[in-house]
Amino acid sequence: MNHQNLAAHWMPFTPNKGFKAQPRMLTGAKGMYWTTDDRRQVLDMTAGLWCCNAGHGHPHIAEAIARQARELDYAPCFGFGHPLSFELSERLAELAPGNLNKVFYTNSGSESVDTALKMALAYHHARGQAGRQLFIGRERGYHGVNFGGIAVGGITNNYKAFGQWLAVDHLSHTQDLGRNAFSKGLPEYGGIEMANELERLIKLHDASRIAAVIIEPITGAGGVLPPPVGYLKRIREICDQHDILLIFDEVICGFGRTGNAFASQTFDVLPDIMTTAKGLTNGAAPMGAVFAGDHIYDAVMASAAAGVEFFHGYTYSAHPLACAAAMATLDVYEQDGLLYRAAQGGEIADYFEQGLHSLKGLPGVIDIRNYSLIAAVEFEPLAGKPGASGSAVQSMAWEQGMMLRSLGDAIAMSPPLIIEKHHVDQTIGILEKSIRQLYN
Ligand SMILES: Cc1ncc(COP(=O)(O)O)c(C=O)c1O
């Protein structure tokens, strides 16, 4: 490829100058592997961006999208509908826990998050508590890149140039290397005391001003931090005591990543609102879905005597091609048992865990953490270059035929849920070689 052609695309979350000097081009994908423009096969240990849970290029999903494009390419969803979105919603509501029975469609995780925040405000407004405008997020939380998401998110680079345009405060993150380094599964220590910090924030701001707490059940882009034992249940309890809504951002965790359809099922904690995207269509079409509890929907519906009840929606909400992709994806997940394959303690998660923790003791490795099929390895910062070791390991692994996600001084993995033991072996081999190369 002529690299001069790369100038016009302003790439997202990418060092543009670095990429254009040394492009990493993907031209095809099948199952667990990418094909690159120089015809290499590269193992996908990230499911793209945590989204291709059933692996790449599944023919059932591809055919469903093509068929739908011929039948009904687009349908406006403001005041009109098409049958597939209602069918999909019923199926999703059945899969979701508790009373999360109402599904609102978006086109991305970021839009799902901002939709969920607006639902929370609309709910309180409908109940005569419009003073509840403040949101509590969490340090190192990632909730996408729209203005709501960056405000509740806790990653400084994502908002420092843009501001925080919502009333927000943040819980501390849950990483405790002193007590919980090299945890297998949920970290053992500190869950209740960390969650109790929410009581301090409620005292500070007053419950009557707080709309919702929004957290990822497992912090993803902020470094892969499974919740310490007891943490999520305690957060739920405190929210209940103060009539504060709990939003789980399951954009990464949803659709099998934690060994159930949703992490709220894995951890047995029911949020009031749940955001999803990514795995919903296996990454094959842009789509997000926000699940609202019946109480949220009912309150908003009751607040308007006639006309539109919720002034929110997107031109492409419930897009027919995305609905077709999601229906076919759910077929694949069901037929192949993928929603449950990653279960912590199950055969493949166990094998992955053992492989990863065999890297303990390598030079530079200061933590390894995992839950189901999501994991991170954290490194000592390189002298004079804090935050650079993850991308150094990522580059070395790429050269050896494996895609990883770099997150500062860590690398993250979230492979397609179809991963087999020999892929795990390949991963551990490449990781060990890369780490030894960097810290020799
Ligand atoms: C937890 C979480 N929320 C929201 C988002 C944003 O999703 P998108 O990039 O589709 O807007 C992400 C993306 O990684 C995410 O991990």
From TrEMBL:
Q: Which InterPro entries match?
A: Aminotrans_3, Aminotrans_3_PPA_site, PyrdxlP-dep_Trfase, PyrdxlP-dep_Trfase_major, PyrdxlP-dep_Trfase_small
List membrane-spanning regions: none
What top-level class of enzyme does the UniProt entry assign? transferase
Q: Which domain of life is it from?
A: Bacteria
Q: Which UniProt keywords apply?
A: Aminotransferase, Pyridoxal phosphate, Transferase
For this protein, what is the EC number?
Answer: 2.6.1.18
Could you give a single Gene Ontology term from the biological process aspect?
A: biotin biosynthetic process
Required cofactors, per record? pyridoxal 5'-phosphate
Kindly indicate whether the keyword Lipoprotein belongs to this entry.
no
PROSITE patterns, per this entry? AA_TRANSFER_CLASS_3
Q: Which SUPFAM superfamilies match?
A: PLP-dependent transferases
Pfam families found in the cross-reference section:
Aminotran_3 (PF00202)
Q: Which GO terms describe its molecular function?
A: adenosylmethionine-8-amino-7-oxononanoate transaminase activity; beta-alanine:pyruvate transaminase activity; pyridoxal phosphate binding
Q: Which family does it belong to?
A: Belongs to the class-III pyridoxal-phosphate-dependent aminotransferase family.
Task: Tell me the PANTHER family matching this sequence.
Answer: ADENOSYLMETHIONINE-8-AMINO-7-OXONONANOATE AMINOTRANSFERASE, BETA-ALANINE--PYRUVATE AMINOTRANSFERASE
- What's the protein name? Aspartate aminotransferase family protein
Q: What is the lineage of its organism?
A: Bacteria, Pseudomonadati, Pseudomonadota, Gammaproteobacteria, Aeromonadales
